[in-house]
Amino acid sequence: MHKVTAEQLNALPQSEYSMIDIRDIPENLSQDKLLVFHCRKGEISEQIATEWRQKGYNAVHLEGGYAKWVLSQVQADNHAKIELSIRKKFHKPIFSRFTKAVKQYQLVQENDKIAVCISGGKDSMLMAKLFQELQRHKKVNFSLSFLCMDPGYDTKNRVQIEHNAKKLDIPIDFFNTDIFANIENIEKSPCYLCARMRRGHLYAEAQKRGCNKIALGHHFDDVIETILMGMLYGSQVQTMMPKLKSKNFNGMELIRPMYLVREANIKHFQRYHGLEFLQCACRITKSPGSSKRAEIKALIQELKKTNPDVDKNIFSSVENVNLGAIISYKQNSKVTHFLDNYL
Questions:
Q1: Spatial contact of 125 and 82, defined as CB atoms under 8 Å apart
Q2: Least confident of 10-19, 66-75, 314-323, 334-343
Q3: Residue 136, Cβ neighbours under 10 Å: how many?
Q4: Using the 8-state DSSP alphabet, how is residue 339 labeled?
Q5: What's this model's pTM, rounded to 2 decimal places?
Q6: Which CATH number fits domain 3-72: 3.40.250.10, 3.40.50.2000, 3.30.465.60, 3.40.50.720?
């Protein structure tokens, strides 16, 4: 070994190596430790390390230089701080709710290979960290693949996602699609079409990588907003399910482990660590704040002013459906009307 990266050096016990500045090399160097020579950019130190190896010392140079190593130390400290906060400060409002959903809805089973789908927003990025924490507990053996689909992002948005992934220590793997280009001239319901296309690409890519599940970052607020949107705009009573079997990809499942996590706590986590995530990176619809979902979100907030439990009640309403008090309902394409059994 002739060189060492900042990451490799951080993984070594400090007792096993000595950092040597090429501008101030001590007269007596230990032959029992790894000598890590460094300079500003890691260029001159490579030559110095070679000379000391020729003298019989176990010497390497620090690739990228001292500044890069210091930056990696800062990043490692940030990673540790973020992960500690999930175990401590945000354990009850976030991690315990995450694990409750995993257990209650049986979202993770032995030997699952889960594609954690990262959009670049706050929800999916936090979901990735929660999955990493869950995996450390080792109560169930499962593997993770952190997928990020680029549907045609602007360069600045792609860079922002990469920056955040590095900041959070999430080893994301990009794959490219041309979704934005395909819906660019669609005037009616481009968001709906985009969502359907995204889902299909995610299933296909995850299956190609040997995964049996894809995980999406929808949270508690998404669920209750979907319930009201269905009632007020879709004339139906239904909800966003915690897990679904794919109809088009055999053996694949969709899971939503953030199902019980409230958006307010996700935002608190974001603010606490000073993180900046993508809001809406779409090139087509430049006004995400004017959506029907935004209207429903504002309505719920208004209702909570007089009834603080209104969000809980909306969520519970689809857990306590009384079929005897429903005019009609549909199950497996069969419609049952209350008059069918009235007499």
A1: no
A2: 66-75
A3: 10
A4: G
A5: 0.77
A6: 3.40.250.10
